[in-house]
Amino acid sequence: MPISVKAPNDGPDARILPGPFYKKEISGVEEQVRWLRHNFGQSANVSYGDKKFFEKNLYWADSSFTTLFDIPFVYGNPHDALNKPGAIIISESIAQKYFGKDNPLGKVLRIDNRTDCAITGVYKDFLPTPHSMPTSSVRFIPWSG
After folding, report:
1. CB count in 10 Å sphere of residue 124
2. Calpha distance 109→118 (Å, rounded)
3. Is 71:62 a contact under the CB 8 Å cutoff?
4. How far apart (Å, rounded) are the C-alpha atoms in residues 78 and 66?
């Protein structure tokens, strides 16, 4: 059953409040996670050095994302991969696309020519399911809000 709670702010930032608000205000809510497609589904300009990519599946997520969902990592630690501002985790396929066989941990990607994100984890590509996100091209960046 959906829960409807009036958040303390109904302005433009109200969409980011429910998760933390529910965790704080509703007993029994132990953890929460939010994720949002970059610019509401718009492609992101991602660059590394002189390499440039346009990616459709970039998501902003709470740091709890990798602890609430059992996501196997190839590099990095899923328990703290999204704990720092400016961190990003990428799929194994994206790591291969951007860096070949090199370990990408610590390398910095620039998003939309304004946000630098250090790679803190590489996870195994998601297995396809009828209702899942695209399996190989998803990246997650910590949501600061």
Report:
1. 12
2. 6
3. no
4. 5
